[in-house]
Amino acid sequence: MVDGIVRTAPALQLALGLIPKEPRRSPEEKRGVVYTKPWVVDLILDLAGYIPDRDLAGTFAVEPAAGDGAFLVAMARRLVTSCHRWQRPLSAITNSLLAYELDEESAERARIAVASALRSLGVPSSAAESLASGWVCTGDYLMASPCLPAADFVIGNPPYIRLENMDAFQAASYRKVYQTMRGRADIYIAFYEAALRQLKPNGVCAFICADRWMFNQYGAELRRLVTEGYAVDSVIEMHRTDAFADDVSAYPAITVIRNGQQGPVMVARLSQQAALAGEHITTDVFQRLQDDGKTAPADVGIQATWVKHWFTGPDPWPLVEPARLALLKELEERFDPLESPQTGTKVGIGVATGADDIFITTDPALVEPSRLLPLAMAADTTSGRLLWSKHYLVNPWSPSGLVDLDQYPQLAAYLGRHRERLLQRHVGRKNPHAWYRTIDRVNYSLLHRPKLYIPDIKDQLNPALDTGETYPHHNLYYIHSDAWDLEVLGGLLMSAIGQFFVECYGVRMRGGYLRFQAQYLRRIRVPRPQDISPAQRAALIHAFRQRDRELATQVALEVYRIPRGSTELVVR
Hints:
Blueprint: H1 10-16, H2 27-30, H3 38-48, E1 61-63, H4 70-85, E2 97-101, H5 104-120, H6 125-135, E3 136-138, H7 141-144, E4 151-156, H8 168-177, H9 188-198, E5 199-210, H10 220-229, E6 231-237, E7 252-258, E8 265-270, H11 272-277, H12 279-292, E9 302-307, H13 322-334, E10 336-337, E11 346-349, H14 356-359, E12 360-361, E13 372-376, E14 391-394, E15 397-398, E16 401-402, H15 409-416, H16 419-424, H17 426-430, E17 451-455, E18 457-458, E19 464-466, E20 471-472, E21 476-480, H18 486-494, H19 496-505, E22 514-515, H20 518-521, E23 525-526, H21 534-546, H22 549-559, H23 567-570
Parallel strand pairs: 1-2, 1-4, 2-3, 4-5, 6-8, 13-20
Antiparallel strand pairs: 5-7, 6-7, 8-9, 10-23, 11-21, 12-14, 13-14, 15-16, 17-19, 17-21, 18-22
Helix pairs in contact: 3-4, 3-12, 4-5, 5-6, 18-21, 21-22
């Protein structure tokens, strides 16, 4: 196994049963020559506290996926240097370091590299070979980890392999042991869980790894494990930094997680300028950040800040620029979520049919008039105002459930012509007796309520007001409230601050579009309606009606009490 985001040496492919479909790796990665650059290794070791000034002989460190030894060699050097500084005999470090490697050829190369590094430090050849042989173990860390001693450090670069590309039996074995591996998880999720559970009190896990788990659905249980039982010390995004010897098809970040109580988190973003500045400059900058809590100088290509309160439970960790993240957390602490039982505000999504070409029509005479429900489509909101296009939902629902088709002969005849097609849907196969149902039930309590519609895919948050005349289609999200004047709320949402929340949590699609899904809309924080002055309410209503985003943003900045110096973090 080679040190890198994806380890794909031929022997490892054979051992794990990898299937070469959906290629995600460059030719260099496939040949197994992806290495973490030395300055990145040293930075991670420094951030973890694995430094020669500490008596490392009295600690136990694990490298769970050693590859050819990029991390292991650096750790071995620091361990021996610490021995000299603390006047420890070499015999004291025999059991201070343990590295796992699945591929025997790679493991042997790691042993040779470690022995060579030790000899360069003056360690006799026999002792160097003995230490290297004892430190490097050929085996599967994930299966061995539950039986290993507790560790002070688990440091490295876990492999990045989709479980569906592995042998099914092996993948199932990992899922059985590691409960955080949900959905389409990558194997690195298991490495995180194994490492965290192995830590002693105050022990540290420091990995460089793809950062998708921090906000994707498959990382939710790992985020819950981290936030409920451990402490995030540092998160350093390195998308724009050449962290590896070759181009790697991943988005790496360094995470330092400690088995202890959560405190402030150092969040940083490195540019290529930071790499060019040299390892010592980068390490010195982070050391100063840790010592005095100040921000990084901009001229070294490092953006950094401290976040006082980290996220909780399975909440995603947005990887926006550090200053924006700090503002996001400040707003989340000062204001309440948009969806709130206190204000009776609810975020939802419109009706999914499973067969739009059957259930949606523009023919008002297709079936009985009582079986036609005015349906709002995303295109109806393009102007920012609801301009109903006279689409209807062919509605098989009553307030009490599915209607009796015998009572509606036109509906029965129309749907009957499509019976076979409707039965082929998943919902039809699951409920053959209810073959004519839509996927979602019509919520009759929503029918005549005023509500804001928000189309799913747009470049900007674009709320439109429905006064209770239509029902939303599945590509529209809706917001209704007992306490808000919806035009005031619409003004806040269409401002740059409403956009700011979604941009922080959402991921832009190709073309620069955002998904305005319920999970992101619920992340928006809003003031209490009574805390908005009459003048501000009037201005927000005017801005909403005139689609004046600039005015809406100006008022929202006042309402949210955004400091003048932070305005540029919101308005982009």
